[in-house]
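Entry for the shared binder. Reason: the reviewer on the internal report wants the predicted structure included alongside the sequence.
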Amino acid sequence: MCLILFHLHEHTNYKLILAANRDEAYNRPTAQANFWQDYPNILAGRDLEQMGTWLGITKSGKVGALTNYRDPAHMKPGKHSRGEIVTNYLAQGETADSFLQSLSRRKANYVGFNVLLGSPDELFYYNNINDTVTKLEPGTHGLSNHFLDTPWPKVETGKQRLQSYVKNTDHVDPNTLFSILADTEEAPEESLPDTGIGLTLEKKLSSLFINLPDYGTRCSTVLTIDRHDNVLFMERTYKAGEFVDEVKFEFKAST
């Protein structure tokens, strides 16, 4: 997952409004979002190579989402799959704060990552680079492949568009959120970060929606949870930049 935009608590009708893109190699096997057979409480897409996930929610309203931290210096072989972090949190009964404190003690098991865990009532952020658990403040936030709210062009553009939209609507239209995620415009070179991958690739990865020959946005997800704990989860899947399918789930979280 390479971009997560979300609005927390400040909306009249919603506790959480989230829109996210997962970017991955096209040949990595992936299952479309659904309730899992082995964990029927979990609704998420699934990486079929390591059996983890990048974003999911439970029937009780527990939420988890993950991005990689992009720095070649942190890419070391022999580490655990980062997708197990969200899976383990959603599958267990532990609170987010307790889980993250435990995760901090095992941070060296993984290459660099960012994770959002909790519920629409209380959401926490952690990364294993700075190694600090933070309870999130209300407002609009963005997370890509650096730290939370790092002002990368795609993060700033996404946050501005999300904030502008949600502050001017009473009822969120998922199609509008998907349209924000579908932006393929690349950022100008002078605004690009330097994450050690070279200017050409930095530019190609600077758009909200990515479409490279072998890598790009595999799916876009919209998740909303209103003040009455009604959940809407929608996922659109893509292949080499072309729309493939859409799934939609609605239920009331049994908090």
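Summary line for the report: The longest helix spans residues 153-166.
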